[in-house]
Design goal:
By secondary structure, the protein is α+β, with helices and mostly antiparallel strands. The protein has helices spanning about 30, 45-65, 75, 80-85, and strands at about 5-10, 15-20. Strands 1-2 form a two-stranded antiparallel sheet. The chain is globular and about 40 Å long. The two termini are about 30 Å apart.
């Protein structure tokens, strides 16, 4: 999450290419609700989450960044969320 474009990190074993993402492109913040993890946040609607991801995509497209969404099947794979993205 260190930038909007890929960058190299020097390591003892050589260079590592970082393909950055950000919480704004992750389905964890809008959809995760877990008593086990102590994360009891209100779940957003699929429309609101998609609006956030689309804004991130458009900004990356405009400025030449790399859009790396992170979608977990157990979060984004719910029927209402899947239905919304394919409407």
């Amino acid at each position: 999450m260190g930038d909007d474009v890929p960058y190299l990190i020097e390591t003892p074993r050589g260079k590592l290419l970082e393909l950055p993402s950000h919480w704004g492109m992750d389905d964890w913040p809008p959809f995760l609700h877990s008593n086990e993890l102590g994360l009891e946040m209100p779940i957003q609607s699929a429309a609101r989450a998609w609006e956030n991801w689309w804004e991130e995509f458009e900004a990356m497209w405009e400025y030449g960044g790399l859009w790396v969404p992170v979608w977990h099947p157990f979060l984004s794979g719910r029927l209402a969320r899947w239905s919304h993205t394919h409407a």
